[in-house]
Design brief:
The complex is a heterodimer of chains A (about 110) and B (about 110). Chain A contains no helices and 11 strands. Chain A is mostly beta strands and about 110 residues long. In chain A, strands 2, 4, 5, 6, 9, 10 and 11 form a 7-stranded mixed β-sheet that branches. With about 110 residues, chain B is mainly β. Classes of the chains: A mainly beta (about 110), B mainly beta (about 110). The interface between A and B is medium-sized, with 22 and 22 residues.
């Protein structure tokens, strides 16, 4: 069974640009959640999608958005990038919303 | 006050030692996760607990729901156990501890 696939692995963007990250969950998993990890704040929940609907959202500004497609693949978008958005972005998929399988992450650097 | 506290923050051990990492929390949860993160970022889910104790190889995880406390134990630690161990609370979302950085030396 293929794991959770995140693309790209690494990304360098300039302040003010926007970025889209992709997450393909394990086949059959309908829940995809996104997390941001920084040295200062640790791991923080961004949002969760289940069957194309956002089920929960963390405390992040509206510049952070996401969506889920009918095949359960999910994308997250960050607009008007700031230096502080530099982080490791992780997604996780779940069949039931309890056990999670994480992807390897996308490391975003904003310069 | 943080909803979840992990201790210690850093831990060094000699190969073969018994390791304990603690996680205390203050909110209601449906389950608690123990996660392992190696350099490079990938996270592996080790355990999901809602009560009692689970064992997988040299790893043992326990949870006391009444005391709102969980522990992760590593028996006969090995250098390959060196990683960051993170507890995460399962509420309507995952709430993460700050992690324990473990280094095991040969």
């Amino acid at each position: 069974k293929a794991g959770v696939t995140q693309t790209p692995r690494y990304l360098i963007k300039t302040r003010g640009q926007q970025v889209t990250l992709s997450c393909s969950p394990i086949s059959g998993h309908r829940s995809v959640s996104w997390y941001q990890q920084t040295p200062g704040q640790g791991l923080q929940f961004l949002f969760e999608y289940f069957s194309e609907t956002q089920r929960n959202k963390g405390n992040f500004p509206g510049r952070f958005s996401g969506r889920q497609f009918s095949n359960s693949r999910s994308e997250m978008n960050v607009s008007t990038l700031e230096l502080g958005d530099s982080a490791l972005y992780l997604c996780a998929s779940s069949e039931t919303g309890d056990g999670y399988t994480f992807g390897s992450g996308t490391r975003l650097t904003v310069v | 006050k943080n909803e979840v506290e992990q201790s210690p923050q850093n831990l060094t051990a000699q190969e073969g030692e018994f390791i304990t990492i603690n996680c205390s929390y203050s909110v209601g949860i449906s389950a608690l996760h123990w996660l392992q993160q190696h350099p490079g970022g990938g996270i592996v889910s080790l355990f999901m607990l809602s009560s009692g104790k689970k064992k997988h190889g040299r790893l043992i995880a326990t949870i006391n729901i009444q005391e709102k406390h969980s522990s992760l134990h590593i028996t006969a630690s090995h250098p390959r156990d060196s990683a960051v161990y993170i507890c995460a609370l399962n509420t309507d979302k995952l709430i993460f501890g700050t992690g324990t950085r473990l280094q095991v030396f040969p």
